[in-house]
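#struct-pred

JT: dropping the chains for the assembly here, can someone run the whole complex?
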Amino acid sequence: MQEAAHTAHEAAIHTVTYLRWIPLLPLIGAVINGIGGYWIQKSAGKNVVGAIACAMPLLGFVLAVRAFLQLMGLDASERLLLDSVFPWIHVGNLAVDVAFQIDPLSSVMILIITGVGGLIHIYSTAYMHEEPAFWRFFAYLNLFTFAMLTLVMGDNLLLMFVGWEGVGLCSYALIGFWYSEWANASAGSKAFIVNRVGDFGFMCATFLLFWSLAEAGHPTLLFREIAQHAPLLENHVFWGMGTVTLITMLMFVGATGKSAQIPLYVWLPDAMAGPTPVSALIHAATMVTAGVYMIARLSVLFDMAPTTGAVIASVGAATAFFAATIGTTQFDIKKVLAYSTVSQLGFMFIAMGVGAYATGVFHLMTHAFFKACLFLGSGSVIHAMHHEQDMRKMGGLKKWMPYTYATYLLSTLAIAGIPPFSGFFSKDEILWKAFSSGHRIVWFVAVCAAAMTAFYMFRSVYMTFHGESRADEHTKHHLHESPLAMTIPLMVLAALATFSGFLNVPHALFGDARFDAWLAPVVQHGDHGAHGAHGGGHHVEVIEYVLMALSVAVAAAGIWVARAMYETGTMKPDRLVYAFGGKLYRTVYNKYYVDEAYDATVIAGTMGMTRVSAWFDTNIVDGIVNGSAWVVRMLSQLYGLFDHYVVDGAVNGVAVVTSVIGSRVRRLQTGHINAYLYVVVLAVVGMMVARIW
Amino acid sequence: MMEIGLTHFLVVGALVFLAGMFCVLTRRNAIGILMGVELILNSANINYLAFSRYSSMSYDGHLFAIFVIMLAAAEAAIGLAIVLGIYQTFHTIDVEATDTLRL
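RK: done, full complex below.
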């Protein structure tokens, strides 16, 4: 029966051999620049290094477009391209290959990764031009692209995990790129260690999934087979919990680490220590969305676990809200964007939690465009401001940097959710799906977060680009628009941020929700849609328009408040601060003291543990080691005594005896002829006497 | 009145030997020692001839005596050469002084 199902399934797979080149090209670039980059840069210059590094993701983009077009040409139920490179692990009942697959979901991801990634590569050639370790940066960046593509293209959980860990490693390396600064190095370590916590969940989930599927008779880690066999786990129970619930919860733990959700979001704001293009590529557009991708990829399991869905939606809403509140108080332009990213990821998780996977992925895509554009825009500003990131020292920059300003503004309108920019369509869709699936509290919290998003993003626009310049004269003198290599990616991204929303115009606005339809084969699972957010799109309700108007209204209100506070000055931020007694503001400004709380609990606990371990180590372990060393020393001293007195004594004794005898005997040799003659005569006489006797 | 026989010769030979031995043992002068050695050799010659005359009645003894004389001449030549060498080295021929071989 399994065989029959297998062959029936095989029929829908289209085998191709060019997919492997999509992740392989960046890997080749990483190897070239990683091993030979130093010499290439020295002999041929930074342009060659940059050209190699940029060519790889751009070639990958061409292949990704080809794969996308091939998918488009296929029937919706058969959209799966597979490129099996080689058998990887075949042990017992585990069979895993290094195989890359493209389905509608992966195709969206690879287009984002290679497209946005390629633009960011180009941008980086200008942004990082003064950097001596230029080649190292691009080697990491290419390696990251490889890992991220492996993550989204792997056809099984293990290969996905390889990419999952690979992006974590590259993230660590790039956050700590300027590793000579302690803060950067520790931010990198923080990101890595916090991610490890999530990875632990991911691994446990993988083991549990494989084990339970094996118990159900179909051991597999291949996504397409998981999708096929998942219903077998419906009533499986493990430790008194539904196994699927447990698996999905653990998966979500992994996602909170990678995608910076409460409680593991703390690494992302610190990750801004890395170069700004890294923040744009890894910590906004691609890597942090890995958790969202993973949930969409395993949506068949998440559909079976409504409890997990509720948890995800709640955590997403909480993250969206708290990160947004922190975002309103930050002055570092990159920190604002970092908390904004956390907040937007929260929105994506709300969508994932309520089962609107396609909507979540849609927001992932639009967010990749506008947030990458915002980060690159902030990078452009930071570049012009000589690495000044404090918005209090900016202001009035639109005069000097018109392109940066225009692109930043367009992206800000997109993230704020103003129609017809892309963010409006994606965010509003999430809000609607949350509301229509009955998660009213989640919806309300998310609307508040959306209002704050509009506020803090326009706050950053006004503080950075409007008003009078607060920079010092020297900086002001050197202000300039960034080179074309930086502004062209900005413009492309801004265009995408502006127009990509039209890919998924909802039915309510007389669109045909094309993006949802594109992803439907991957994320809709027949009657397993437990909390039916999908399928209900075709009959339009009045309330949808009301909510749409409401979300636009709160966004507009957020913008108006920001304008009143930071542009026209009719409202004083200080007064608002003191209206709440200042205490609330200080708490939010200090990020709710979450880092401090972690310091006091997890870090202090770990440190306490290490101190106990250190005590144990110095007193017990070292004691044992030193004690045994002492015993050995004493024993060897005994041996030494034996050696000294007995062995050496014997040897020396022989020598002493010989020498004493020698000194006595040598008296015989007088050197006097007479003496010898006496001896001769006496001897002769003696012999004669003896003879006669 | 006794006839002179073998015994007399042997006594004379022994006396000469003792004189030579005494000379060798007591002289500190190297040349004196050489002279003593000559006496010892000649006492041996007397014995050879005496035994040749009274015991074997052959010429063996004469032959040996001639050998001894020849050897004595060679010995004297070498001995004197050594003495000369000693004199050149130590500026003396006193055998008490030439004890450098002693350790």
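JT: nice. The interface with chain B takes residues 666, 669-674, 677-678, 681 of chain A (CB under 8 Å). Confidence is low (pLDDT under 50) at residues 1-10, 527-537 of chain A.
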